[in-house]
From TrEMBL:
InterPro entries: Aminotransferase_I/II_large, AON_synthase_class-II, PyrdxlP-dep_Trfase, PyrdxlP-dep_Trfase_major, PyrdxlP-dep_Trfase_small. Keywords: Pyridoxal phosphate, Transferase. GO terms for biological process: biotin biosynthetic process. Transmembrane segments: none annotated. This is 7-keto-8-aminopelargonate synthetase-like enzyme. Residues 109-405 form the Aminotransferase class I/classII large domain. GO terms for molecular function: 8-amino-7-oxononanoate synthase activity; pyridoxal phosphate binding. NCBIfam families: PRK07505.1.
Length: 413
């Protein structure tokens, strides 16, 4: 769903191109499915290991480098037990009720605990997608910017769950898209407009990150409103796992920054959340955010799992896992050259170029016993297909070395 680097919303500008996307990407999805690289149904084993059923009597053992559980918490015994105990305690999994009506008492406990953990006003959602869908129209309305509708600027590489909202946002205010991390273009827009909101990722899902300090400088000079989706950065940075973006804002979020994050991924549970900076923002979101007013909360198991995870985030174990992740990332960088080498971020991408060649490389790696992601348009630009690898704290040295060797063989072949 690529767009031009800049532009404004108008009746002649489209913010969606779904039919074109399907036309261009369809053959490569079909090839990846045919090669057995997509929609795998597996059984979990120890650590990052899984088994792929091949027949009634045979299965293939694999080491997964696709999951985004960067700290290896998604099968942590305390988190699993937290989920089970919460369901036992409440005797139900889910209430079909909007959050403006009834909520589980444990959900209040969770949001209080997360608010304390991250020094923000936290509201939880079923997914980060739901959090983004709730937040962006409210920002576009101007209610959070003194009644003045902002020019909403999206980073070109903003996650699909952010970019998807452009048509809705464009009904409220002007929408522009700028080049990736183009701070100069963003500053030009800030100079020319009284109220500007910028929408970006903290850690990008295909590697790289937002220039947080430069964005904060624009915020200080121009009053820029920041909406940062830090789903891939949460838990990995900060003494309490505040995340990539929040850990760089020690003085607090204030009234001009909102951070979205995942309760899955590094956090190891399930769901999404928003970190808000003011009581006014919290009041608006709890009354008018789409997923709060017209949908239900995360289920009881997810609440119990998240409560267990936030407790782990207060223990020395968090730092141990953060250190292990950093060590495995460094080891991978020694063995496989990528554009992200040397970065503390957990995602590595290897550009192959041709889509079918990338799919073939992923198949070679799979045959060696390691599951990696074959990436191609629309996940990355056309002609920039490749492999995406997620080392985690849950892997072993042998597994990191093994996948590295398999990747290098696949690229040579």
């Amino acid at each position: 769903m690529q767009e031009a680097d800049s532009g404004v919303s108008s009746p002649t500008i489209s913010h969606r191109n779904t039919a074109s996307l399907i036309r261009h990407a369809g053959p490569h999805f079909a090839a990846a499915h045919l090669d057995g690289l997509m929609a795998l149904y597996v059984n979990p084993s120890h650590g990052r290991a899984v088994t792929l059923p091949i027949s009634e009597s045979r299965s293939q053992p694999l080491v997964d480098f696709v999951r985004c559980s960067y700290l290896g918490l998604d099968n942590h015994p305390s988190i699993v037990e937290g989920a089970i105990e919460a369901v036992r305690r409440y005797g139900t999994l889910h209430w079909s009720c909007a959050r403006t009506r009834l909520n589980f008492a444990a959900l209040g406990d969770l949001e209080d605990a997360l608010s304390d953990l991250f020094a923000a006003r936290v509201i939880t959602y079923t997914t980060v997608l739901a959090a983004n869908m709730s937040a962006l129209p409210l920002i576009a309305s101007g209610v959070l910017t003194g009644g003045k509708k902002p020019v909403m600027v999206f980073d070109r590489y903003a996650h699909a769950t952010l970019a998807f909202n452009k048509p809705v946002v464009a009904e409220e205010c002007e929408v522009r898209t700028i080049g990736h991390n183009d701070v100069h273009a963003l500053e030009d827009i800030c100079r020319q407009n009284e109220t500007v909101a910028y929408v970006c990722d903290g850690v990008y899902s295909m590697g790289g990150c937002a220039p947080i300090q430069e964005l904060r400088d624009l915020q200080e000079r121009y009053g820029l409103f920041l909406y940062i989706d830090d789903a891939h950065g949460i838990s990995l940075f900060g003494e309490r796992g505040e995340g990539f973006a929040r850990s760089q804002m020690p003085e607090g979020l204030g009234e001009r920054t909102i951070i979205a994050a995942s309760l899955g991924k590094g956090f190891g549970a399930s769901g999404g959340m928003l970190m808000l900076g003011t009581s006014f923002q919290e009041e608006i979101f709890r009354r008018f955010a789409l997923a709060h007013a017209f949908s239900a909360s995360i289920n009881v198991a997810a609440i119990g799992a998240a409560l267990a995870s936030q407790a782990i985030h207060r223990m020395p174990e968090l730092g141990v896992r953060q250190k292990a992740l950093a060590e495995y990332i460094s080891l991978f960088d020694e063995l496989v050259p990528t554009a992200q080498a040397g970065s503390r971020l957990p995602i590595r991408t290897i550009v192959v170029g041709d889509e079918l060649a990338a799919i073939g490389a992923a198949r070679v790696v799979l045959d060696a016993g390691y599951y990696t992601s074959a990436i191609f348009f629309p996940t990355v630009a056309k002609g920039r297909a490749g492999l995406r690898i997620c080392p985690t704290a849950g892997h072993t040295t042998a597994e990191v070395r093994g996948v590295s060797a398999a990747i290098n063989r696949a690229l040579k072949g």
